[in-house]
Specification:
six-stranded antiparallel sheet, 11 strands, 31% helix, disordered N terminus, Phosphatase 2c, domain 1, alpha+beta, globular, 7 helices
């Protein structure tokens, strides 16, 4: 076990009038480095972008790819002024394709980065709705009115096998090919992001996370933490990370929580 296995996770807390966010990332208990990346940004009209990436490939490649994706998308987003999902999706189509090409070209230029790539899950959050986009097996969930639901499907080999009926969801959890991703940034010259638009009412929560969380905690365990009364968003991030480490911590663990605190739309 690495000496840094129990190092404290990185924390951040942001408040944007109606939208509150908090995020945390931990190296876990086994890995020697953290190749996850997470950050929250605002555009010129105070629209929120939250991004979670899980890097892969090469000695440092995963860390480079995930950091590149978060940084490039975030700073490009900060220069925008859109306030609706339609324009947000058009922007994302261009930016995700551009970032995919940038990661591919960077990997070609530097031999030690060859084969690097990253999953990505993000949410562009308006006052009463959000646009979710993802590539890979990092996930987005919704917790609203006591209901906890997964908003995206894993882009992975085992999920394809589940959909074809060749294995069960239970068998997928420990399948030897569990880590094979079918969509990501930086691996193929073409990408096909999945989008999901969701409504946000007062105190609805969105959770973005890497598979380090979902490999350690079940959906009911995550839901129980989100349902615990009296916990701030930061407290919930802290508890999710700690529980994932306590019950395994076999991978880097990153979570981002987003809450609508502004009340229902009139």
């Amino acid at each position: 076990m690495a000496a840094t296995a129990f190092s404290l996770p990185k924390w951040s807390w942001e408040v944007n009038v109606l939208i509150k966010t908090a995020y945390a990332s931990s190296i876990g208990r086994i890995r020697k480095s953290n190749q996850d990346s997470v950050q929250v940004f605002e555009n010129k009209n105070k629209v929120t972008l939250a991004i979670v990436c899980d890097g892969m490939g090469g000695h440092q490649g995963g860390d480079v790819a995930s950091t590149m994706a978060v940084s490039h998308l975030g700073h490009s987003f900060a220069a925008t002024d859109f306030t609706d999902c339609r324009r947000a999706k058009n922007w994302l189509d261009v930016q995700l394709s551009s970032e995919n090409e940038t990661i591919l070209k960077t990997a070609d230029r530097f031999p030690d980065l060859n084969g690097m790539g990253t999953t990505i899950v993000l949410a562009i959050v308006f006052d009463h709705e959000a646009l979710i986009a993802h590539l890979g097996d990092s996930r987005a969930y919704s917790y609203a009115n006591g209901n906890f639901s997964q908003l995206v499907e894993d882009h992975s080999l085992v999920n394809e096998l589940v959909k074809m009926g060749q294995i069960t969801k239970q068998q997928a959890k420990n399948h030897p090919q569990k880590n094979i991703i079918t969509q990501s940034l930086g691996v193929s010259s073409t990408i096909d992001p999945e989008y999901r638009q969701v409504n946000l009412k007062e105190h609805d929560l969105l959770l973005l996370c890497t598979d380090g969380l979902t490999n350690s905690l079940t959906d009911p365990q995550i839901q129980q933490i989100l349902a615990t009364r009296g916990l701030s968003l930061k407290d919930q991030c802290h508890k999710l990370i700690n529980e994932a480490n306590r019950l395994g911590g076999g991978d880097n663990i990153t979570v981002c929580l987003i809450s609508n605190e502004g009340g229902d739309e009139q």
